[in-house]
Design goal:
The complex is a heterodimer of chains A (174) and B (197).
Chain A (H helix, E strand, L loop, with lengths): L2 H19 L24 E2 L18 E5 L5 E5 L5 H10 L4 E9 L8 E2 L1 E2 L8 E5 L4 E4 L7 E12 L13
Parallel strand pairs in A: 1-4, 3-7, 6-9
Antiparallel strand pairs in A: 2-3, 4-9, 5-7, 8-9
Chain B lengths: L2 H9 L3 H6 L8 H21 L5 H18 L10 H21 L4 H4 L8 H13 L1 H9 L5 H12 L4 H8 L3 H22 L1
Helix pairs in contact in B: 3-4, 3-5, 4-5, 4-7, 5-10, 9-10, 9-11, 10-11
The chains are: A alpha/beta (174), B mainly alpha (197).
Chain lengths: 174, 197
């Protein structure tokens, strides 16, 4: 250390050290499951119903899994095992030349009806019908200890265009 | 012993003793921050020394960066990114603020925290550091025609020694976007160099 850096540290410790001495620091170990919003780029997750708009940021504790398949009638089925896989599923839609992006709203509790949910396109959005299936039967269970722990089902699903009109995936995006 | 008293005693430890503590896990947030400081203070001084010719300005911008870092250290989570990337993000903000205030005709340095009177030996050290950064500053001059985002990419990786991942974190962009930016910047520089030969 030079004299300058040594003196600077002494000043920092003297003037600001007391405030830091008892600060809560993150525990060592793996990063918490709560991710910054940008991790969810391409999706907005919220709770539908009762006017609640609580953002859900779900941890990606393992590789997100998804599948995008087209059926004979031209409709598209997006299957996601974890809601965190939605950005990849949206990217896949784009790669397949489908100019629609899926936005899902999760609601608490198990799905009343097992199976995929048909997405509602935003005005001006055209393309094949898109359905979304969360998990194997429409219900996702997040175990305790993880962010968003509980039982969730897909409450609503919307489609936006894949450029401009959709959400950016960031909380508070303007 | 009160918290404040502990902090005051702590800072009186000789440098050699603090340097020895680098080899073991920190026992307090203050000691953890000290290790962050020791790892990064030199490279951050270099960052400012390439931008400023005045030792006092280099000193104040370096100080301000660490004052802000110390204030925000409780929220810094090393599992989400390196301390160097985090500090460079702060440094960029501090320098931008300095430029804004300088452009506004105000005494930017006096408005920033952490200012104190420097001893002659400290001024000489900082002046030497500014000299030592001349090559880096010259490279930055050659980058002057690059877009600012590409210039920042070159500087953080090629001069400050950050990994592309750290530099991306410092600039708040994705790793993919940053690597493209860096590749584009290097390509432009190469072409410019070839056209000058």
């Amino acid at each position: 250390m030079t004299k300058f850096t040594d003196h600077l540290w002494s000043d920092l410790a003297r003037e600001h050290g007391a405030a830091l001495a008892n600060a809560d620091r993150p525990e060592p170990g793996r990063a918490p499951l709560l991710r910054r919003p940008r991790v969810l780029a391409g999706s907005t997750l919220g709770l539908a119903g009762a006017g609640t708009a609580l953002a859900l940021t779900l941890g990606a504790s393992s590789t997100p899994a998804f599948a995008v398949t087209t059926s004979g009638d031209g409709s598209v089925l997006v299957t996601i095992n974890q809601t965190t896989a939605l950005p990849q599923a949206n990217a896949k839609l784009t790669a397949m030349g489908i100019h629609e992006q899926v936005t899902i709203y999760m609601a608490s509790g198990a799905a009343a009806v097992s199976g995929p949910v048909t997405c509602t396109p935003a005005p001006g959005v055209s393309g094949p019908p898109v359905k979304v299936l969360v998990g194997t039967n429409g219900t996702q269970v997040i175990s305790s200890g993880n962010t968003g722990a509980g039982t969730w089902h897909l409450g609503a699903c919307h489609l936006t265009g894949d450029s401009g009109s959709g959400n950016t995936g960031n909380t508070g995006a303007g | 012993m009160s918290t404040e008293a502990r902090a005051l005693t702590r800072q009186d430890r000789p440098v050699a003793a603090r340097a020895r503590s680098r080899g073991r896990p920190p026992s307090s947030p203050l000691e953890e921050f000290e290790q962050v400081y020791l790892r990064n203070v030199d490279v951050l001084m270099g960052y400012f020394a390439r931008r400023c010719r005045d030792p006092h300005t280099v000193a104040d911008l370096t100080s301000e960066t660490f004052v802000r870092a110390m204030d925000g250290f409780a929220r810094f989570d090393p599992r989400r990114g390196s301390d160097r990337a985090w500090l460079f993000g702060i440094a960029a903000h501090v320098f931008a603020r300095h430029c804004e205030q300088s452009a506004g005709g105000r005494d930017a340095v006096a408005r920033l925290g952490g200012h104190r009177t420097l001893g002659m030996d400290e001024i000489e050290e900082l002046a030497e550091r500014i000299d030592a950064e001349r090559e880096g500053a010259a490279l930055m001059q050659r980058c002057a025609r690059l877009p600012s985002v590409e210039r920042a990419a070159i500087e953080l990786v090629d001069l400050d020694g950050l990994s592309p991942k750290e530099a991306a974190q410092a600039l708040g962009v994705s790793g993919v976007a940053f690597r493209k930016r860096l590749s584009r910047a290097r390509s432009r520089l190469r072409k410019e160099h070839e056209s000058n030969d």
